[in-house]
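Q: Hi! New to this. If I give you a protein sequence and the SMILES for NAP, can you show me the bound structure?
A: Yes, paste them in.
Q: Okay, here:
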Amino acid sequence: MLKIAVIGCTGRMGQLVLREINQNPNVDVSGALTRSGSPFVDQDVGTLIGEAPLNIAITDAPEKAFHDADVVIDFSRPETINISLHEILNQQKPYVICVTGLTDNQKASLEKASQKIPVLIAPNTSLGIALLKKLAVLAAEKLGSSYDVSILEMHHRHKSDAPSGTSLSIAQALATVDHLKENAPPYPSRSPRPTNTIECAVLRGGSITGDHSVIFAGEKDVITIEHRTLDRTLFAQGAIKAAQWLFAKPPGLYSMDDVAGISL
Ligand SMILES: NC(=O)c1ccc[n+]([C@@H]2O[C@H](COP(=O)([O-])OP(=O)(O)OC[C@H]3O[C@@H](n4cnc5c(N)ncnc54)[C@H](OP(=O)(O)O)[C@@H]3O)[C@@H](O)[C@H]2O)c1
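A: Thanks. Here is the predicted structure of the protein with NAP bound:
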């Protein structure tokens, strides 16, 4: 049985992951970390998710939260990464980082850590997005520079980063294609539009879970590849799949493309 610790356990995604782990016969919760001063500290994890007590107390101490874990899943916030990473490295735990909006410095720290532990950076844990990226790269290669490439995303009104980590990862995949190689984030919209660029447009509103479209606009037709998330448990289940995949992997930097068996 794979034992998983969850960082950001009291948040929207953290609670969902705990529920999914609890319902999955192949994995167990071994620890749950929240911020210090949280009113949830010392509450039982089972009570938090509306189930029978699991005899695991929510803690604000990373060393305690990770102690019994085989893998750590992080759905907290970018500003907490460095504190958690320090202890994850101390304890040599595989790390699935699902937080978005990471700074370049944080990404560099994760890359450095991946020389010592397995690190999987997953701004979107749905396998459908891994497939969308693959299809978008194929379309960009086949259609060439006569089609303008744009990424359009919409998320709920509470999302704190923009463009989404998923949009940026789609853009990074597209920027491996020859005629789009000169591109760099943040991929703003420009008018008149230069050729061979990637643009990202962002919409926020309501409770939309996460919609991403890659649009190839030509002179005579438009091709759209779209992914719509209908239920956030998709992300929770994807994070658990990623944890199961990452366990026992050698140190290195991995992505959901590896979990999905898709190489770009
Ligand atoms: N990879 C994916 O597929 C995917 C899918 C959805 C969301 N996300 C990303 O996952 C992250 C979390 O999303 P969310 O919607 O669940 O946000 P959220 O509801 O704000 O949850 C974040 C949680 O982290 C807690 N936290 C703050 N400081 C902490 C610390 N030092 N240690 C441990 N926990 C701490 C917060 O506690 P307090 O509320 O008490 O401050 C909060 O409960 C975001 O970056 C989001 O973009 C990724």
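A: The CA atoms of residues 125 and 239 lie 6 Å apart. Let me know if you'd like me to explain how to read the tokens.
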